[in-house]
């Protein structure tokens, strides 16, 4: 039987079990119309003991490890994370920058587009300093988000800009 999952909403905080003894958290912070109306999540760096119950304020005040696009509901459905709670504290979503390469087949790309959430994409050269602070803008499947939280990196090949 297919598991029914309630819709997720901005502010939802998710608990992600990364081992038998530790867990981490991520939060759904925006919907990005620029990128397929996908959910934008931020993953936090602190790992907690599995039995600890941190407050939502403690979780969302942690250092942000990454920003990414995904389907947060799919992660619940596939049991990669569970809903922990909801808070209005989502951080400064206006200054998050995403990037995507137009020529995915290249190892070193010259064709980069950047954007802020719900704003139009802009072309930049690979020499643009803004690429250093931008997050990859593709929509990631729940398994890749889980691996990013667990291992600290996306397990994928993607064009470089330097």
What is shown here, in short?
By secondary structure, the chain is mostly beta strands. The chain contains three helices and eleven strands; from the N terminus they run ββββαβαββββββα.
Q: What this model shows, in words?
A:
The chain has 162 residues and is mostly beta strands. The chain has a domain at 12-92 and 138-151. 13% of the residues lie in helices and 34% in strands. It contains 3 helices and 11 strands. The protein has helices at 56-60, 72-77, 142-151; strands at residues 12-17, 22-32, 38-44, 48-49, 64-70, 82-86, 97-101, 112-116, 122-124, 135-136, 139-140. The strands form 2 sheets. Strands 1, 2, 3, 4, 5, 6 and 11 form a 7-stranded mixed beta sheet that branches. Strands 9-8-7-10 form a 4-stranded mixed beta sheet, with no helix packed on it. Strand 8 (112-116) and strand 9 form a beta hairpin. The termini are far apart.
Compute the CA-based radius of gyration: 16 Å
Query: Mean pLDDT, as a whole number?
Result: 92
Number of helices: 3
How many strands in all?
Answer: 11
Order of helices and strands: EEEEHEHEEEEEEH
Distance between the termini: 48 Å
Low-pLDDT parts are: none
Range of helix content: 10-25%
Strand content: 25-35%
Structural class: mainly beta
The best one-word shape is globular
Main sheet, how many strands, which sense, barrel? 7 strands, mixed
Q: What's the layout of helices and strands?
A:
Elements (H helix, E strand, L loop, with lengths): L11 E6 L4 E11 L5 E7 L3 E2 L6 H5 L3 E7 L1 H6 L4 E5 L10 E5 L10 E5 L5 E3 L10 E2 L2 E2 L1 H10 L11
Parallel strand pairs: 5-11, 7-10
Antiparallel strand pairs: 1-2, 1-6, 2-3, 2-4, 3-5, 7-8, 8-9
